[in-house]
Known about the structure:
Two copies of one chain form a homodimer. Chain A contains seven helices and three strands, in the order ααααβααββα.
Amino acid sequence: MSNSALELTPVETVACCSPLTKEPLSADASERIAPLLKALADPVRLRLMSLVASHADGEACVCDLNDAFELSQPTISHHLKVLHEVGLLDRSKRGVWVYYRVKAEALTDLALLLGGVAR
Amino acid sequence: MSNSALELTPVETVACCSPLTKEPLSADASERIAPLLKALADPVRLRLMSLVASHADGEACVCDLNDAFELSQPTISHHLKVLHEVGLLDRSKRGVWVYYRVKAEALTDLALLLGGVAR
């Protein structure tokens, strides 16, 4: 996972920084934050985040998400993996399926970076 | 400007939607929101947003921003144009320079979409 190479969890990556509109962002911080936004900047992945969050108990496997897209299961699995790798989704394996859960704190930290709204 | 083709301002584009974690995002909404996140998902553009917001009176021209980057003025102007086209920066021409200003409401709406924090 690329983030472990930085020895920072993805959440720490974002929580490091003041809101975008409050003070200049450092070059280092911008390099760490851009990949999270890039992972989100895709219509399928945006929908996957919302579908996982809205699913029963806040978690879902690719088997639960298939029907919402006209895409193959491997393609959906790939998008889920991208979101997991940047730290926007947690995952755990149970039986034959991998279950995903939104890391709400990562989204909240991104929201704070963009909006500067209080926690 | 691509957004005018949709007959929606960029801010309306995002403000249309419930927070990502509250209910499934529609395919249409995800297609409209992804370009804003994609515009932000670049280290130079993230820094430009923060530098413009932090500049005197909350506005800056490319002449004010040059020194922060080891990039040519046309390259920085290109990044500013990308941010303007998706509706994250306002601009106005005065004399020979174009001055940019962060559209705080667009960032706040994106923040609400991601974090679901109250206004």
